[in-house]
Amino acid sequence: MPGTAPATPAERIDVVDALRGAALAGVLLANLGPLSLYELLTDEQKRALPTAAFDRVATLVMPLFVDGKAITVFSLLFGVGFALQLERGGARDGERVGLFLRRIAVLLAIGLAHAYLVWWGDILVWYAVVGALLVLFRRAPDRVLLAGAVVLALVGPPLVFAHVRAFLAPPRQAEVYAGALVAFTTGGYADVVRQNAVLVDWSRRSNWALVGFVGGRFLLGYWAGRRGLLKDPAAHRVLLTRILWVSLALGIALTFLEATREMVLARVPFLAAGPGNMVLRMALRATTLTVGVAYAVGFVLLFQVERIRSALRLLAPFGRMALTNYLAQSVLGIALFYGLGLGIGPRFGIVGWLAAWLLILVAQVVASRFWLARYRYGPMEWLWRSLTYGSLQALRISR
Q1: How far apart are CA 76 and CA 84, in angstroms?
Q2: Which are the contacts of 321, defined by CB distance < 8 A and separation ≥ 6?
Q3: What is the pTM of this model?
Q4: 45: alpha, beta or left? (left if phi > 0; alpha if psi -120 to 50)
Q5: Closest by Cα among 378, 352, 381, 356 to 367
Q6: At what angle do helices 349-372 and 322-337 cross, to 10 degrees?
């Protein structure tokens, strides 16, 4: 089956790898909130930290520019990758779909091990579950992909919110977080594993809307990949520029709405309940999507500028090893902040969180470049490919 053979490094698209690296840097910044244990603290405990003044400003700024936006770009790229896989010639449609589903099955196994044995905040399980459904849309016309993306990402979750929340009935966050803080700061590895199971169950019940969040972005990325927007950005510069300005304008307007939400609700009571509130929630859900799209398209257009491309390309090895680096970030976060590691915990607030982000990011960018100068794939990427194809893949670069 030559058409289903793994893509070689020469077949990779630099802008996709570099953009994935930039997105992973943002994902690390967001994930270090819970990994540093800061987000497990109560409001009173946060106010008692010596960094409380800085933290108050950071907690206003970071949600507006980081939270949800990085994972939006990361999710869009999953859809792009799916389109690129299906477009590879030399194999029948059934073989390509079978290969994709095997990749998804392996990803699910890796995600479950990561969630229960390492860190409960895993996103790979959601990617695997929702990603398997992408095969249903592989022959859908563009208008169906775009409409499906809007429905899944913006319309669906608010419409079914009350019904799903009542059915799932998650435990109270304060109680779950309090137990987790004790286990992660004072417990051993067995305590961490037990608490991971509790948090995974709570997360699945509380964050069910991730199905729509991830699914909508997968479909949008699939549309972009099928149109070849990232495979040949120069040929689509006009369309990409239009997408940038529209998404940026909407993103700025919606971000302002999100920042002034309480003021708007006080002045427009219609938006506080009923259909008006549903419209408001749909609009606010569009904030991360539009800003994330603007980030992604802006990055792709900047990558076309020769003077800037060399700097952005430094992120490409980091992005090529996205799975390895994502899993390693959890291990490094636990080693720094949990009691079974250095035990730094949340004592330094968001200052410690940001310092860890910079340290881990620089180390992984350098390590990725070093590794890929000698090997074809990252360690976990190699394992993923080997399990998918049922045979050990060549790892070391021949010289």
Answers
A1: 13
A2: 368, 371, 372, 377, 378, 380, 381
A3: 0.92
A4: alpha
A5: 378
A6: 140
Token pair 């980081």: residue = 66
Q: Where are the alpha helices (DSSP H) in the chain?
A: 14-35, 43-47, 52-65, 69-87, 93-117, 124-132, 142-150, 156-168, 173-186, 189-206, 210-227, 237-259, 261-267, 274-303, 306-312, 316-320, 322-337, 349-372, 379-389
Q: pLDDT tens across 35-51, in order?
A: 999 999 999 999 999 99
- In eight-state DSSP terms, residue 378 is -
Q: Which residues pair with 375 in a beta bridge?
A: 396
Tell me the DSSP string of 90-138.
Answer: SS-HHHHHHHHHHHHHHHHHHHHHHHHHT-TT--HHHHHHHHHGGGGGT
Backbone phi and psi for residue 393, each to the nearest 5 degrees, phi listed first: -85, 150
Contact status, residue 396 vs residue 374, Cβ threshold 8 Å = yes
Tens-digit pLDDT profile for residues 187-236: 999 999 999 999 999 988 888 888 889 999 999 999 999 999 998 999 99
